Amino acid sequence: MKKIFPGIIIMYFLPSLVQAQFLQVVSATKQPWSGGMAEHYGIDYCITLTPVTEGIVFDSVYINNQGTRLGHGNTENVKTDSIHNRYTIYAGASNIFRKPTFVYTEDPPPLPAKRFDGEALVLYTYKGKHYTVIVKEMQTLSPMAYP
């Protein structure tokens, strides 16, 4: 029994250690907005991550059970700050089609996990293997009102 207990503890914490191994969340914000035309509103999301190593390739991000691809023809939604060694992911949800959808979504990928403990899930690849990083909480910024 004494040898089994430490093994159980290691198996419980190992997935979270592996998932956070190559990227660390620096900040995450969401900012509601409205305007531009009648009844037009949405939310802009911004997630800033610091890589622990080079060679990370972003795949997709999931917020509120909706996904958008990153880097697959949508290079404007991942910005690299090489001076501060950070990546920033930009995504937006809008009701322009009478249903909140991601603005950048070309072909929404299916949600890889039915449940995750957080507000966002970022999928990425490193050396041919798939990894995830969970954004536990996003800071809500004050709403923007456009004319």
Protein architecture, described:
- The chain has 147 residues and is mainly beta.
- It has a single domain (22-142), classed as Sandwich (Immunoglobulin-like).
- 11% of the residues lie in helices and 46% in strands.
- The strands form two sheets. Strands 1, 2, 5, 6, 7, 10 and 11 form a seven-stranded mixed beta sheet that branches.
- The model is unreliable at 5-20 (pLDDT under 50).
Secondary structure class reads mainly beta
Helical segment tally? 1
Order of helices and strands: HEEEEEEEEEEE
Which CATH top level class fits? Mainly Beta
Average pLDDT value?
Answer: 76
What fold name goes in the CATH topology slot?
A: Immunoglobulin-like
How much of the polypeptide forms β-strand, as a percent range? Answer: over 45%
Tally of discrete structural domains: 1
Radius of gyration: 17 Å
Quick take:
This protein is mainly beta and 147 residues long. It is built from one helix and eleven strands; from the N terminus they run αβββββββββββ.
What's the arrangement of secondary structure elements?
Elements: H1 4-19, E1 23-34, E2 41-51, E3 56-63, E4 66-69, E5 78-81, E6 86-94, E7 101-102, E8 120-126, E9 129-135, E10 139-140, E11 144-145
Parallel strand pairs: 1-10, 1-11
Antiparallel strand pairs: 1-2, 2-6, 3-4, 3-8, 5-6, 6-7, 8-9
